[in-house]
Amino acid sequence: MTDTSESRAAEPSIVTGNAEVRKRYAFDDTQDFEDAQRGFVGTAEETTVRGNGSGAGVWDLDAYGSRLVARHGLFEVVEGIYQVRGFDLSNMTIVEGDSGVLVIDPLISAETAAAALALYRRHRGDRPVTGVLYTHSHVDHFGGVRGVVRQEDIDGWVPVIAPEGFLEHAVSENVYAGTAMGRRAAYMYGAALPTGERGQIGAGLGQSTSTGTVGLIPPTLDVTHTGQCETVDGIRMVFHLTPGTEAPAELNIHFPGHSALCMAENATHNLHNLLTLRGAQVRNPHVWAHYLTEAIQLFADGVDVAFASHHWPTWGRERVLTFLSEQRDLYAYLHDQTLRLLNQGLTALEIAEILQVPPALERAWHTHGYYGSVSHNTKAVYQHYLGWFDGNPAHLWEHPPVEAATRYVEFMGGADTVLRRARDSYDAGDFRWVVQVVNHVLFADPDHTEARALQADALEQLGYGSENGTWRNFYLTGALELRKGPVGTPTVAASPDLLSALTLDQLFDSLAIRVDGPRSWHADLAIHFRLRDADPVTLRLRNGVLIYTNGTAPDERVPDTEISLTEADLRAVLMGTADLSDLAGRGRAEISGAPGTFAELLGHLTVPDPDFAIVTP
Fold first, then answer.
1. CA 482 from centre of chain
2. Fewer CB near the terminus (10 Å): N or C of the chain?
3. pLDDT score, position 491
């Protein structure tokens, strides 16, 4: 466990602010406590889920105490539909069929998914998995698939169902910008923080992310349109495609035989992210609200319970309609009001500071910003429509952080003066201002001991005062790194399964984004790959850009090198799991022309940094 001896207790202004919340919010509404425990069947006797082979803990069931989102075990949703909750960031849903079970969203890690399935079987019998369904393209909904089913089962008779576009988005999100997302996710989910009142208490959507083995089995059946019906092991499902909502590829599922509606991650018991703090493409709340309206129109007459891949279900037709309607109104309000205010000339920062949700929505606990927030979601809407620039020419060509910080500190009279006044602001409880000004001192002098200590203290206080779980984790992880040094990236999303699912085009793209442009300005290389079992491909590095073409491009010069091999061997070489010279030596590759061209090309690539600095330059 991380040493927290340097952490400080909450300052009086934070304690007072948190106490005021009890007067403002609907603490008389305790329905969620009943719903979160309803249908409880039992839980695991062993509370630590351990890694396959390593024996290291990848998940601790009891780390988060009795918080609603941390209540773990097997729960009956309705007869024939069960959920295992609290075994990872997400829920795993199990629907009983004629001879086995359909597993929906098998968590992040194979180890946690296997533990969840074992818990189900202990109470409901050793039923085989007769189908797998991914509701959308985020890793916490497919990464543990190899813990519930084997590849030979899929090759034989077990279908894997997913929304159209699932594989492309699942792979590209985790590979193209995966290193940066992973590093920022370490902040967002607080994986390096201790649990407890001065550390990590959850992420709002769930507790945190498990750290086991991430896998992916590609879908065998795509859902391509709303209204598509499929029956797996006697389980009839009607699908509702919702692209561009919480994920680029996502769907809801109606189970007519159970009068149940799975809302995937489109309606959960919190305000979700329109732009996740780890980084992603902006989600459009106008589209999100549209699909929630559509779900109500399509399924309202046949629903007695709605459940999702996070949190707990909502029972009763009227309560379900209220829940879905309020979720819809929440996203529509943020969208419409942000546009109203930006069209009055307000910037993203100004909108975020003044926009509040209506009292009726605020009273509903499921609209609160435990994961997303009104503040960063309104900024996301602004970014979606207007981008990064607020229109003020003073912001068009600003100095980068280090250069700006050096000038700010000098203008403010030097680091000692800044810190003296920042300590006064700290004592006055203005922690937002402290982190803003001390950040300049740190970027001008990252080794300044007093600045690091004060910044850590102020970040910590902001964390203690955050309703939002991911804001808290960001603040406290920043404080931890200032005190103890980098925590790195605890989880790696680009697993072998994800890499193997890349198309050749995506593999070439993943190489292109690693080219060191300035160092490659004057390079001009061309390699022609004559694939023995697929169409030929040519790579050309010129002007610091790596371009690939299928066949021969009209403007292409004679290649420096021609390489003949299979597509599988080319993929292995590009992913670094095979050596081209070794393949040639064994007769699996033929190289003609300049033999060193491919090695020269690799020399122009950089390696992503999973430990880059965040709170210091």
1. 24
2. N
3. 65
